[in-house]
Write a structure and sequence with these properties.
GO terms for molecular function: oxidoreductase activity, acting on the aldehyde or oxo group of donors, NAD or NADP as acceptor. It is built from 15 helices and 23 strands. The chain is α/β, with parallel strands linked by helices and 489 residues long. Bound molecules: nicotinamide-adenine-dinucleotide (NAD). Nicotinamide-adenine-dinucleotide binds next to α7 and α8.
Length: 489
């Protein structure tokens, strides 16, 4: 198995019961920088899904009885192997998703390795709670057991990074898994299966079925052999998965969309706030659920902030992701059309487009004419009621608006249906902490963005999701806890 340099598309296979299995039907997968077909992925159906779930169920009695140390040893081997294959994985992630190779090398692939390492280490140090009741002559303590078979469904924006954030805790805590990566970006998940097999994970513990959400995904979430569903993706699909899980009384975690705000107070250090905010808006083409898509700037510094933001954004290099660029293409033609449609909406709502799409030229040489490229775009003069200020765009588009008071900005930031994260910039610690505690989001960054400790809970409020993930928090999802009360006197 190698990444083909020939003109023939790479053909990938499901991974079921420890074997790579050919499919009878395939879907085309496109290179976003050229629009050409570069891979073919199985169009799995309910029979493939059933096969994968059965293998996971058969492997569960054995895997669930292994010790944490035995499981950790294999997970650490997988982490090492991801690191050894950094270049190959980063190139594949870039070709499949559109992100710069350099970004995949410093963010996506190292984080995938870290996911395995962090959960391997933490599972070995996990302690359960106990409560002694001497007056009753009893001691209470808890034990945790793996849930069974976990269905892991992931999106296209950080393919290996996000899928491994599910695989690692699920396996570390003794579950078997069936993964369904996004049909748009399946290649690195397939490459991971080979690394996992070589690391000695027993057959059937991890299974991977590729294909569409409506066929393979739907079969997986409805399968009676699945005990828990972990989903990262859009709010609409999450809403549907939540209903299916509720109907079948299955455990579920939903990591969904966002409409994240940056807040820039008038005492912010702009030499740091401007570049970090640009990163937060446009890193990975703005295709990170945590990207900033609304920026509220205190009125006294609004003009200066806008000028600096626009000037530096215009300098960002957009182009083929194999080159030294800040942004590659968006992931698909459909997504590019969606992002552009929001810029059209903004114009209809009376906005001014300060830079980017339709303002600045982007000319790329062949063979990139048919790629899904767009320049980072900054919009202003929009009412908060505009769809551009309310809905998730999930691309390199940000809307800027001035504010006057602390109370006003808290109210406006919270005035969306999402609640994933925010970034707040300023110097006055009391004000920053007051604001941070009143924002209805799962994560607030103060004077930074995207700094992640995997030991901290991660997740969203409101329509951004249900549940928290992290080295101890993921155990809530992937294990069942039993309280044992022992009368000793
Ligand atoms: P999506 O919801 O369209 O698809 C996500 C996954 O769900 C894919 O694997 C897809 O095939 C599958 N799917 C679709 N319909 C399904 C169904 N009926 N049953 C089972 N599975 C189904 O999302 P996307 O377009 O791939 O990703 C972008 C979205 O993901 C954005 O909304 C973004 O904010 C969100 N996201 C959230 C986080 C987070 O941590 N909160 C992280 C990354 C991305």
């Amino acid at each position: 198995m190698s990444l083909s340099d020939t003109l023939k598309p790479l053909v990938i296979e499901n991974f079921i019961g420890g074997s790579f299995v050919k499919s009878s039907k395939y879907l085309d997968s496109f290179d976003p920088s050229t629009g050409e077909i570069w891979a073919q992925i199985p169009d799995s159906d309910p029979t493939d899904v059933d096969d994968a779930v059965q293998h996971a169920r058969n492997a569960f009695p054995m895997w669930s009885k292994t010790t944490a140390a035995e499981r950790a040893k294999i997970l650490i081997k997988i982490a090492d192997s991801i690191e050894e294959n950094l270049d190959k994985l980063a190139q594949a992630e870039s070709k499949d998703q559109g992100k710069p190779v350099s970004l995949a090398k410093r963010m996506d692939i190292p984080r995938a390795a870290l996911n395995f390492r962090a959960f391997a280490e933490s599972i070995c140090h996990h302690v359960n709670i106990s409560n002694n009741l001497p007056e009753m002559g009893c001691i209470n303590f808890t034990v945790r057991n793996p849930v069974g078979v976990a269905a892991l469904i992931s999106p296209w924006n950080l393919p290996l990074y996000l899928l491994t954030f599910k695989i690692a805790p699920a396996l570390a805590s003794g579950n078997c898994v069936v993964c369904k990566p996004s049909e748009i970006t399946s290649v690195t998940s397939w490459m991971l299966c080979k690394l996992i097999k070589d690391a000695g994970l027993p057959n059937g513990v991890l299974n991977m079925v590729f294909g569409t959400g409506s066929k393979a995904g739907e079969a997986l979430i409805n399968h009676q052999g699945v005990n828990v569903i972990s989903f990262t993706g859009s709010t609409n699909v999450g809403r549907h998965i939540g209903k299916v899980a509720a109907n079948n009384i299955k455990k579920v975690s939903l990591e969904l969309g966002g409409k994240n705000a940056g807040i820039i107070f008038d005492d912010a250090d702009l030499s740091k706030a401007v570049p970090a905010t640009i990163n937060s808006c446009f890193l990975n083409q703005g295709e990170i659920c945590l990207c900033t898509s609304r920026i509220f700037v205190q009125r006294a510094i609004f003009e200066e902030f806008v000028q600096r933001l626009v000037k530096e954004t215009k300098n960002l290099k957009v182009g083929p992701p194999t080159e030294d660029v800040f942004m590659g293409p968006l992931v698909s033609q459909v997504h590019l059309d969606k992002v552009r449609s929001y810029i059209d909406i903004a114009r209809k709502d009376g906005a001014r487009v300060l830079c980017g799409e339709s303002v600045d030229e982007l000319s790329l040489p062949a063979p990139y004419h048919k790629g899904y490229f767009i320049r980072p775009t900054i919009i202003t003069e929009l009412p908060d009621s505009s769809a551009c200020m309310q809905e998730e765009i999930f691309g390199p588009v940000v809307c800027l608006s001035p504010f006057d008071s602390e109370e006003e900005v808290i109210e406006r930031v919270n005035n969306v249906k999402y609640g994933l994260c925010s970034a707040v910039w300023g110097q006055k610690g009391d004000r920053l902490l007051r604001v941070a505690q009143q924002l209805h989001v799962g994560t607030v960054w103060i004077n930074c963005w995207l700094v992640r400790s995997l030991d901290m809970p991660f997740g969203g409020m409101k329509e951004s999701g249900i549940g928290r993930e992290g080295t101890s928090h993921s155990l809530e999802l992937y294990t069942e806890e039993t309280t044992i009360c022992y009368k000793y006197q």
